[in-house]
Write a structure and sequence with these properties.
Length: 372
């Protein structure tokens, strides 16, 4: 056996007694086991190979069996769990080649298992960090909503008191209005972050109903925008066949408010923004168009992702990008799709569809189990 392992950098232990072999392999794990038929034949009543194989410590250890040129014996031995059956007589170099290949394969498998285990640990750590991050964001944003709402209430009260006092102070009134507008913007950001998370978790309320007037809903959406039109010119053109549709009015109103707010953000004072809607095939198409700065083509594919926005802006104001992410998720909740067409310097048009037959949310009672 010394000549067999030459060049493999392995030590050799030879056992001529089965009992000693069994005892030794209980406390030591060899790199490989070479069994000779003569030793196994000493204990015909004992399934020696199966007994060794069933030990967890030897489960992946290479087994080489040196046996007679007998197809029947070879079949039984291989079935017992050996990796290679070598017919005697043979050359030490043949056994060495088999051992070298088996040990190399075992080393590769060890590396793969170690990499897999490391990947699992990394995945678990990543999931835990994501959970902590999501919980922290939810806590922070949720806790921000109350003080922001309080500040907005105080600003509204201050403006009412200023009007009621009869004092005219245009500068102060403008500052209070601006503070109120920015507070509303901050509240909208918080709401979008929370609602994007709720939608991804499947916890966002969704109740499609009949919308009596899409034009009125669109105008109400404009009223929800922080700061209002801000000296932009707005137009509303809804075809008669699209005036009434089925949708979750709350979500649809939020979609339009976000798109209009986005249009205001990317147009200068005096710019034009219009809302249009029409029926096309089996869906209603709604659009918000502006004549603003436009969006570079490189940005158009990613602006619907969270925390992404176009780098090309006329206003130096950071936005989380959650507004468009909310729009995408809310439109997809209805079974529609959303996209943008834009040219830099020529404005942008955001389109989205609402199917004519909007699917109702599935209730618990809607699940049917059929059986014999």
């Amino acid at each position: 056996m010394s000549s067999v392992v030459t060049g493999l950098d392995l030590a050799v232990e030879v056992f001529t007694d089965v009992e000693k072999l069994l005892y030794h392999t209980r406390v030591a794990v060899p790199e490989a086991v070479v069994l000779e038929h003569a030793l196994v034949a000493k204990v015909p009543q004992l399934d020696l190979i199966g007994l060794l194989r069933r030990r967890p410590s030897l489960a992946d250890v290479p087994f080489v069996y040196l046996g007679p040129d007998s197809a029947e014996a070879q079949a039984g031995i291989v079935e017992s769990g050996v990796d290679v059956y070598v017919t005697l007589p043979t050359s030490p170099s043949v056994v060495r080649s088999y051992l070298q290949r088996l040990l190399g394969r075992r080393q590769s498998e060890r590396g793969l298992r170690a990499a897999l285990e490391q990947s699992r640990r990394f995945e678990q750590a990543y999931k835990e960090s994501e959970r902590v991050k999501d919980d922290l964001i939810h806590m922070l944003v949720h806790d921000l909503k109350s003080p922001i709402s309080s500040v907005m209430g105080l600003l509204d009260h201050s403006m009412e008191m200023l009007k009621g006092s009869g004092r005219e102070d245009a500068g102060l009134d403008e500052l209070l209005s601006l503070a109120r507008s920015e507070s509303q913007h901050l509240l909208n950001l918080a709401a979008n972050i929370l609602d994007v998370r709720r939608m991804k978790d499947g916890h966002m309320p969704y109740a499609p109903t009949s919308v009596a007037s899409l034009t009125d809903l669109a105008k109400e959406s404009l009223g929800d925008v922080s700061g209002g039109p801000r000296d932009r010119h707005f137009g509303f053109l809804v075809r008669p066949e699209a005036e009434q549709l089925v949708a979750d009015s709350g979500l649809l109103r939020r979609i339009l408010a976000n798109l209009m707010a986005n249009a205001i953000k990317h147009t200068r004072r005096g710019g034009y923004i219009d809302f249009r809607a029409w029926k096309q095939d089996d869906a209603f198409v709604l659009s918000v168009r502006d004549d603003g700065e436009g969006i570079p083509e490189v940005d158009q594919k990613r602006i619907f992702n969270a925390f992404e926005q176009s780098r090309h802006t006329v206003h130096d104001r950071y936005d989380t990008g959650m507004g468009l992410t909310f729009c995408k998720l809310a439109v997809e909740k209805h079974g529609g799709k959303i996209w943008v067409e834009s040219k830099v310097g020529r404005g942008s048009t955001f389109y989205f569809t609402i199917p004519v037959d909007v699917a109702a949310p599935l209730a618990d009672a809607d699940v049917m189990i059929a059986g014999a």
